[in-house]
Amino acid sequence: MAIATINPFTGQTEQEFEAHSEEEVDRRIASAHEAFHTLRATSFAQRAEWMRAAAQLLEDDVEELARLITIEMGRPIKGARAEVLKCAKGLRYYADNAESLLAPEQLADPSVVGASAAGTRYAPIGVVLAVMPWNYPLWQVLRFAGPALMAGNTGLLKHASNVPQAALYLDTLFERAGFPEGAFHTLLIPASRVEAVLRDPRVKAATLTGSEPAGRSLAAIAGSEVKHVVLELGGSDPFVVMSSADVDKAATVAVTARNQNNGQSCIAAKRFIVHTDVYDEFTRLFAERVAALKVGDPLDESTDVGPLATESGRDELEGQVADAVAKGAHALTGGYVPDREGWFYEPTVLGGVTPEMRLHLEEAFGPVATVYRVADREEAVRVANGTTFGLSSAVWTTDPEEEDWFVRNLDAGAVFINGMTASYPELPFGGVKDSGVGRELAAAGIREFCNLQTVWKG
Asked: Any idea where the Aldehyde dehydrogenase domain is (predicted)?
C-alpha cells in the first residue's frame, strides 16, 4: 500500500510520500535509544511541563489538525475536532497523575520478608514501538505516547499508510513541546518492514491497535524475541436492551454508538440484542433515526456520516451485507452503496441475521448495525458472548439486580450500563479473547511498559 493521503470523499490522491530508507530508520531507532537515557533521568515535574506544552500545541493547532484528519480519513469535522481536544485532555491527565500512578510502594511490615525495608518501584524499559491504525489517527497514538513518555520511555510510531500527514505531525509534536530530540519518532515504512524494527535489540516492547491477523503476527515476532506487547484488536460489541430499559433513550444513543466515526470504531456498538417485549419499538425508533442521519461532505459541519476511509473497506462492508441479505437478512434501512462520488455506504440496520452469515461473527467496520430478538437475559448473554471478540459491551436496564448479573456474565473488557462505550484517560481500556491483551489508559496503561522492580534492603 502506498504511503499517501487519498481523500475518501473524492477518491483523489492529495499527496504521496517516500518511505524512509533503511539508513534513516536506523538513525531514528538510534535517536530514540539515546533519548531514552536522557529522558529517564529527568524528573516527573520536567516531563509534565513538556507534556502540558504538547497538549497546548494540540489545542493551538485544533482547526488545522481537524481538517487534516477529515481529509485523510473522512471523519466528520465535528468529530475530528473533538478527537484533537480529547488528545490534549489525555496528555494533561498523565502530566498531572503519572508521578502518583508510578509511586513506589512499601511493605507495611518488611520483617515478614526478613528486611528492614522492602517494596516495589516502576522503572521505564526503553524504546517502545507503536503500530497504529487510521481510524483515530491522533487519539490511538497519543493514548500510548502520553503515558509512555511520562514513564520515561521513548516511542517509535509506525502509523497506517493512509494517514501520513497525521503521522508526520506527531513526529515533531513532542520535540516542539520540549522533549529531548528522539523521544518520539515516526517511521514512514510499510507493514512489511515492521518485523525488522521489532527485532532490533534497541526496541524493548511494542503496542498495536488493528486487525486480529496483524496482532497475531506482531505478538508472534515479539514472543520469539521475548518482548512485551499490548494488543487492541477490535471487536463486535453487543448493545443489549432489556424490557425495563428506557427504550427511547436507548434508541437515540444506539444511533451514535453505531455510527460514530462513520461506524469505523473498535468500540462502536455493532450487534443490538433486544428483548422481545421491546424489540418492535426499539427497532422502529432505531431504524427511523439512522435513516435521518445526514450523509455527505465530512468538512460540512452538519454532516453526521461521511465516507469510509478506504475503498477496500467500503467494498468489504458491501460484501458482508450482500452475504447476509443473500442468506435471508433484511434491511430495516439502508443496505446499499449510494450513487455518489467517494467511498460511502448508506447507514444500515439489518434484521434477521443468523449464524451462517458473515456479519454474525465478523466485525463490521462501517455504518452497519445488526439487530437480534431474544427472549430473556440468558439468551441475550449467549448471543453477546457468541463471538471470538470481547472488547466492550453496553446494557440497558433499570433493574439493579439485572445490571449486576450482566456485569458478571458478559465476556468483555468493559461493561457500560445505560450508556455507550467510550474511552477515558481515567479508566483502563482493552479487551479479552481475540480483542487483545493488556490495557491502555489509567494506571494500568502507564504501568504496561514499566519494569515492576522489587527492592529489598537488609
From this structure: 3-455
